[in-house]
Design brief:
alpha/beta, CbiD-like, 2 domains, 5-stranded mixed sheet, 16 strands, globular, S-adenosyl-L-methionine
Length: about 375
């Protein structure tokens, strides 16, 4: 079997394009087919191809790189990333100012970051590290990252569920893009679990980068975080086999709700059932029968949640906490049973679900207890 190839995350290509544009700006017209870039995380230097670079004015240059995520299911493959670099004003407060242009998403309802470009911590660090070392004393630049296809691509992602609109995020904690859909990546996740288990008896599982980012924002110890991608079932079993005492599941409700229905591989290509699971819980708790078709026919899990919220507002009921409280409890029970069935080990499992605005929607009783231990 051919070994799958890793690639690089979107921030790497944005930084590479910015380096090429800055080189043109400082040194004049030249042929630039690639640039060397320090990934920062991991600590290694790589060579990134550059598609095009040109000066626009005497004070600005534009370079283009194309995304290469490796052998991964990633819709940004071959996406052009533009970096416009301009000399900064003398009174510019920072040596390097990073801003988002067309196709880079905006953060909405993010604490202290309202309407800021969705260029997160690793991308900022990567850009500043690589660009500042090429500037001489007194030089300042302004960098605008542009994703011409970002707005259209964002419609095919769950970005809006995490409070990012009108484009893609420059998100990630590393420069390496691993083939997350590959069984080989499950092995890497398992190895990370075993490493952390040797230090902690309680771990926090997050499906992806959005969950990891939000978990640290609410105070969860980052050393306890374990990324699972969609391999929640195998990772739960691995936790049992490794002797982990407790697992806190932290994730978007539209993803974790599948666990309440016994779906332990959460990629949408494998199984969905979110609205069916939600409707069943609504019916079981006695939601008026005339409302159930609307829940079932909702376009997304988020839309169904908002419908339930509208019912609570208009009728003075509290269906949302009841329904999602029951779902969280069911997730806990299903996961604990799943672990025991496949490992004959008992592991405490609690779940925390958040909504598209990054607000905690529900904490199960077990999760409430575990949260104080992992923060």
């Amino acid at each position: 079997m051919t070994e799958l190839r890793a690639g690089y995350t979107l921030p790497v290509f944005a930084a590479a394009a910015a380096i090429a544009a800055l080189r043109w700006l400082r040194q004049g017209p030249q042929s630039i087919s690639s640039v060397d870039l320090d990934l920062v995380e991991p600590a290694e230097t790589v060579t990134i191809p550059i598609a095009q670079v040109a000066g626009l004015t005497s004070n600005s240059a534009l370079a283009i790189a194309h995304s290469d995520p490796g052998d991964n299911l990633d819709l940004t493959r071959d996406t052009p990333i533009w970096a416009l670099v301009e000399w900064g004003a003398v009174d510019q407060p920072e040596v390097v100012v990073i801003q988002g242009g067309e196709g880079v998403g905006r953060q909405i309802k993010a604490e202290n970051q309202e309407n800021q470009a969705a260029i997160y911590a690793y991308a900022q660090r990567l850009l500043h590290t690589n660009l500042e070392r090429q500037l001489t004393l007194g030089e300042k630049i302004r960098v605008t990252i542009i994703l011409p296809g970002g707005r259209a691509l964002a419609e095919r992602t769950s970005n809006a569920a995490f409070g990012v609109v009108e484009g893609l995020s420059l998100l990630g904690t590393t420069g390496i893009s691993q083939p997350l859909s590959a069984p080989g990546q499950l092995k890497a996740f398992s190895e990370a679990l075993h490493t952390k288990q040797s230090y902690f008896d309680g771990l926090v599982f997050c499906v992806g980068e959005n969950g990891l980012d939000l978990a640290t924002q609410i105070g969860i110890n980052p050393n306890r975080l374990v990324k699972t991608a969609n391999w929640l079932g195998p990772m739960l079993v691995e936790a049992g086999l490794a002797g982990v005492q407790a697992v806190l599941l932290f994730g978007y409700h539209g993803k974790l709700i599948k666990l309440a229905g016994g779906i332990f591989h959460t990629h949408h290509h494998v199984a969905d059932g979110r609205l069916e699971i939600l409707t069943a819980h609504c019916a079981n708790l006695g939601l008026p029968s005339e409302t159930l078709p609307t829940v079932f026919a909702s376009s997304t899990a988020e839309a169904a949640l908002n419908y339930l919220r509208s019912l609570d507002t208009s009728s003075g009921t509290n269906w949302v906490p009841q329904v999602y409280g029951a779902i969280a409890q069911q997730i806990d029970q299903r996961c604990q049973a799943y672990i025991y069935t496949h490992s004959e080990r008992t592991v405490q499992v609690g779940s925390i679900l958040f909504d598209r605005d990054r607000h905690i929607l529900v904490r199960s009783e077990i999760a409430q207890k575990l949260l104080s231990q992992v923060c």
